[in-house]
Design a protein that fits this description.
This protein is of the alpha+beta class. The protein folds into 2 domains: 113 residues, OB fold (Dihydrolipoamide Acetyltransferase, E2P) (Beta Barrel); 194 residues. The chain contains 12 helices and 8 strands. Strand 7 and strand 8 form a beta hairpin. The chain starts with 7 loop residues before the first helix and ends in a 26-residue tail after the last strand. 34% of the residues are buried.
């Protein structure tokens, strides 16, 4: 039996509060939630259903996720979509629910275009998102400062100095993991923390080289998939399409390397040229296998560690996404994720000993 949902006018009076797409995916399981959402129009396409009924399909992207909405010809939203342009920022208000067939969807929704002040606030991000990105960037800078090799430390500092703002808004991917504005920083920050911990367990690893490899392994994505200063859309660029982020990353590191005062370190061991080549190998091999796009397979301990740390963070992020986005096909079992080639199962909670069970 269908639930009785509040009228949109009642929703507005009750002021349900603004949500992100990620929050709506998490909070709308099994219930319908009246809420507001702000984002940028990523795609806008006019289509027809199987019975010839016209509708607009609109994708709205915020800082962390994207939501697909459909506006049918007998709704106010349909007329609003006809006046809308791709790239505009909007507020969508309606009744959101997670539908087994379509995932997160909205009913009886309507929208308005944001004013310039609201648009600026949207791209700044919420307090939680901003704090998380600031922490990641601070951790990256702090770990760079712990490097002992002055060449690798200087190279990393130069990168952050020249490309910091672009690094902070680039995406790590288009679909599978960290596929949003700021995603590359989130991915890199967690990888650098993980790599530092791995080096503590395996002292044989060259910590400076591995940390630098983490920072630079995806740096080509600053040009392959970087949203504009005022945008969430991940545009396609000719350089990224023709070369790919591995080739671009190697080129970027070589360009930065030439700016270093290498003469100052002429007598340092290992030789600067060896350091440069080992770093480039980490970038070239970080996908792990030729079939996954690496021009060469990992051949050093640091290259193997980088590939595994990269893969670990990507897969854990995909699992976290699956728990909020994929519908349950059985209690605790979510629908198959193609990129993981499995049906994710909810994790076992950490052990927590209650007061009653305590032997003390």
């Amino acid at each position: 039996m269908e639930r009785c949902l509040p009228k949109l006018e009642e929703t507005i009076m009750n002021d349900p509060g603004r949500k992100t797409v990620t929050q709506l995916r998490s909070e709308c399981r099994g219930i319908s939630l009246a809420a507001r959402l702000r984002g940028q129009v990523d795609e806008l396409t006019k289509k027809e259903s199987s019975n010839g009924k016209p509708y607009w399909e609109m994708k709205v992207r915020d800082a962390g996720d994207v939501l697909t909405l459909r506006a049918w010809s007998d709704t106010d939203a349909f007329a609003a979509c006809q006046e809308l342009a791709r790239g505009e920022c909007v507020e969508v208000e309606g009744e959101f629910a997670v539908n087994g067939s379509f995932g997160l969807d909205a009913r009886r929704w309507r929208m308005r275009v944001l004013d310039p002040q609201e648009t600026a606030e949207l791209f700044v991000g919420g307090e939680e998102e901003t704090a998380a990105l600031e922490k990641d960037f601070a951790d990256v800078r702090e770990l760079v400062q712990t490097m002992r090799d002055p060449r690798l430390r200087g190279l990393c500092e130069l990168f952050l100095q020249e490309f910091g703002p672009r690094f902070q808004r680039a995406s790590a991917a288009r679909h599978n993991h960290h596929a949003h504005r700021g995603g590359l920083l989130r991915h890199t920050g967690q990888m650098m923390r993980s790599a530092s911990a791995v080096c503590s367990a395996y002292p044989v690893l060259n910590r400076d080289l591995l940390l630098a490899g983490v920072l630079f392994h995806d740096c080509g994505k600053l040009w392959e998939m970087c949203p504009p200063e005022a945008g969430f859309e991940i545009p396609r660029e000719l350089r990224g399409e023709l070369l790919g982020h591995i080739s671009i990353g190697i080129e970027a590191v070589n360009a930065l390397w030439r700016k270093l005062p290498l003469e100052t370190w002429r007598g340092i061991e290992p030789a600067s040229e060896d350091v440069r080549l080992h770093l480039l190998h980490l970038i070239a091999s970080h996908h792990g296998e030729l079939q996954f796009g690496s021009p060469v397979e990992p051949k050093t301990p640091e290259a193997i560690a980088l590939n595994m740390v990269d893969n670990l963070d990507a897969k854990l992020e995909m699992l976290a996404m699956a728990y909020t986005r994929q519908p349950e096909i059985a209690p605790g079992i979510h629908e198959r994720v193609k990129a993981l080639n499995t049906s994710p199962v909810k994790p076992l909670p950490a052990f927590s000993q209650g007061e009653e069970e305590s032997p003390l």
